[in-house]
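Loading example: each entry is read as four labelled lines plus one structure line.
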Amino acid sequence: MLTERQRNVLEFIQTEQREKGVTPSTREIQSHFGLASQTSVMQYLAVLERKGFIDRHARKARALITPVQKVRITDIPIYGQIPAGMATLTEQTIEGHVSLDARSVNASKNARTFALRVRGDSMINAHILDGDIVILEDRKDVHNGDIVAALIDGETTLKRYVMEHGRPYLKAENPLYPDLTPARELRVQGVMVSLVRKQAAAQRRKRN
Amino acid sequence: MLTERQRNVLEFIQTEQREKGVTPSTREIQSHFGLASQTSVMQYLAVLERKGFIDRHARKARALITPVQKVRITDIPIYGQIPAGMATLTEQTIEGHVSLDARSVNASKNARTFALRVRGDSMINAHILDGDIVILEDRKDVHNGDIVAALIDGETTLKRYVMEHGRPYLKAENPLYPDLTPARELRVQGVMVSLVRKQAAAQRRKRN
DNA sequence: GAGCAATCTGTTCATTTGAACTTGCAAATC
DNA sequence: GATTTGCAAGTTCAAATGAACAGATTGCTC
């Protein structure tokens, strides 16, 4: 897709961006590659833009946008202990933020993304632990087998969404916990797309 | 620390940075706040820099650096399939990056942080799955029970570090895998501090 | 009242910077 | 042989942009 040279230019831009926090000007790129003419750089930029590797704000200085940073960071609010009725997700219930880039999290562009801190071991067999931060998307389409945060009979829980005989229920991934069949309604608030776990520093629990 | 007005200016800069990918020029800031003189902006920037809220590259266009992008995010290189001898961690073996903020990852400031993509199920009972990205720190102090990436007899693996009778060995968290006792040397390359998992979109595996 | 910090205006400069021509050459493609 | 693509150089512009200097107002403190 890119020639050797073109890739080098792109990499230089990305590196500068990352290290200095600012994208280089055309002349800085020029001198880095020892080119005698700034026009050469303009040509590279034109190619990179045409091929979709960068975006440019016309006539603005240092206004290159590399895909690296363009997608980059999503600030995801963590809603902590949600007792009941997450319908009212407000700023007040926000426990903190995780910042990570959309790609490393599987997040789609349009859906609203948020996070929950998991409490309890009800999803232990899905390898989701107490204290894990689960990142969810507010999506319409829920598939059979997805792990979801759902509001069931007034309480929000993280469970696996299972469709059986045309009727959905929520399955706990732990035999000690009951599956939940909605008495009235089952409202899915988010579909799990990712998980972040902080490892306890010195862990004592394992002693078997 | 900041006056109302100063904070507004800072926030505008950060918002622009985030949404457009480029920091605004002084004149853009000026017109956003309806100021008649660009000098006013220069004064704000001087204050913000003096107070440590932004960095500036002198005489460069749009060369503001906001703490948002400066501190916050750590770009963690992911080393993919490491067959043997991670002593040679070079750019070439980098599979990609995860970007997340140091706090949500438990990362200490001074230690070198990197990530590995896990392959295999040898740590399944520690709830680490095939495909998970494990974030590690290159630390000196390893505690009994820590999960570590270690170079044992020329091969890098992720295992639990267990000290028994004064001798360390590597314990797999899966009965199907053997524990590893170092024949020659056991070199810990990193201690696990965090984990990031992308959830498979539509998952078929669970069918029990 | 003097002094000071925060805020804002007005004006002018020197660079920086993106952009638009043109020309040249070599390798690949048709 | 003609055309296209990648690469490079040289020149010139106009606009964008950071910076400096002078002055003014307001409110607060000593």
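The beta strands of chain B are 55-56, 64-65, 73-79, 94-101, 112-117, 133-138, 147-152, 155-164, 167-171, 186-198.
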